[in-house]
Amino acid sequence: MVASIHPSLFDRMVKLRRDLHRHPELSREEHRTTDRLVSELERLGLECQRPLDTGLVAEIPGASDAPTVAIRADIDALPIHEETGLQYASEVPGVMHACGHDAHAAMLVGAAELLMSRPVPPPAPIRLIFQPAEELGIGARSMIEAGVLDRVGAIFGGHVDRHYPTGTVVAVSGPVNASTDGFRISISGQQGHAARPHETVDAVVAGSLIVMAVQTIVSREIDPTHPSVVSIGRFEAGTASNVIAGTAVLSGTIRAQESAVRAHLHRSLSRICESVGQLHEADIQLEIEEGTPPLVNQGPMVEVARRAASEALGPERVRTMVRGANMGGEDFSWYLQEVPGCYVRLGARLADSAGYPAHSSRFQIDEAVLPAGAAWLAEVAVQGGEALASGTVDDLEAAGRAS
Ligand code: NI
After folding, report:
1. Mean of the pLDDT values across residues 183-201?
2. C-alpha 94 – ligand 1 centre gap (Å)
């Protein structure tokens, strides 16, 4: 076992994780999951609050009135039909824990048990956040609006990751996940006879020009050392082969690891739409739906996360990123817009398989990540509290820069 955790706690976490895995629930529908987690925490003597319809918060009192340290797990599943063949596979057709949030929830309960069994209270109060609706990118924001960050001085969380050996923790400064914005471009031209194009404004031609021009934003406007993506996934137009389409709708996604790059992508898309509209005398409207911001770790709490991993699991298990940041989103970024913190990757690679990616119907993790994740979460909550209670946050930042 990678962390020194009592075998009976490991068994309880595995049992809980498998139960959640068997009964996955989609974003904002995590009712059974919430009830199950509440009963687990009440067994530990914790009082739970439900600030939203699903999800919950529980607080462990601290030895001081220093700001609270929050540790967070997400709890929702995905609309995917499970094909792992596991004996505890999903019993809900079309719904699956294909991102490991079942493991995140079980680990946070495990961390609560470790914290509650300490002979002395933690240096600062600890808030456990079991967050719904991460997969929609809206759960964190709703929880923040419901007040879960009140009095919070630092927040930590992590995601299972099959790219790293089980028991390792990747805690780094800099980008971890990209921003996720959606966009929709509506083109209005003039419909007409396909044999009389001069009487029309062809929305397919205007739209095609936009598709091609968009390819040059990332390749010719953005510094290639700053990863970003603009993809058009949908192009709808036309009703018949002999009718020139008068309208078209294009939609896609924008990803960036930095706020400045994200803003540049928005401006470029807008400029291209305006220019193509002028070129073809078409009315082109761009709507950008802002999603989660980029998740960027920075500041002294990264050092706290690293030290906690070293303490809980051993210095050799603290890793740096080998694959660069993930261009997928993670709504933990909303918390980091409000308070300092750190989001880590928790190695969960199965030894005997190449593994299937997250969000696939065959996704699996190594359950030995559970004790490692629980041990890290408990340790980081204590060390974060120590830093906040003793006012050594600035020293940590200096130490982190020097290391
Ligand atoms: Ni996830």
Report:
1. 97
2. 17
- Alpha-carbon span 112 to 63, nearest angstrom: 16
**Strands across the sheet containing 247-256:** 228-237, 247-256, 179-188, 283-289
pLDDT value of residue 353: 58
* DSSP 8-state code for residue 227: -
Secondary structure (3-state) at 361: coil
Model confidence at 5, in pLDDT bands (50, 70, 90)? confident
Q: Which two tokens mark 101?
A: 């949030």
Strands 179-188 and 283-289: antiparallel
Angle ∠(85,88,94) on CA atoms, nearest 5: 65
Interval between CA 48 and ligand 1 midpoint (Å):
24
Q: Which of 242, 133, 129, 126 lies closest to 192 in space, CA to CA? A: 242
Q: Read off the amino acid at residue 82.
A: E
Taking each helix axis from N to C terminus, what angle separates 369-390 and 300-313, rounded to the nearest 10 degrees? Answer: 130
Q: How far is the CA of 220 from the centre of ligand 1 (A)?
A: 32
**pLDDT value, residue 396:** 67
211 CA to middle of ligand 1, Å?
A: 30
- What tens digit of pLDDT does each residue of 7-59 get? 899 999 999 999 999 999 999 999 999 999 999 999 999 999 999 999 999 99
Partner residues linked to 228 by β-bridges:
256
Structure tokens at 139: 């759960």
Q: Quote the pLDDT of residue 351.
A: 75
The percentage of residues in the chain with a pLDDT greater than 90, rounded to a whole number, is: 90
The residue ranges of DSSP E strands in 124-227, in sequence order, are 126-131, 152-165, 169-170, 174-177, 179-188, 192-193
Strands (E), 257-390: 283-289, 295-297, 318-319, 341-349
Q: Rounded distance, CA 24 to CA 82, Å? A: 10
C-alpha 285 to ligand 1 mean position (Å): 33
User: Taking the CA of residue 399 as centre, how many other CA atoms within 13 Å lie in the half-sphere pointing to its CB?
Assistant: 14
Gap from CA of 384 to ligand 1 centroid (Å): 24
Query: Distance, CA 199 to ligand 1 centroid (Å)?
Result: 51
The residues facing 201 across adjacent strands are 190
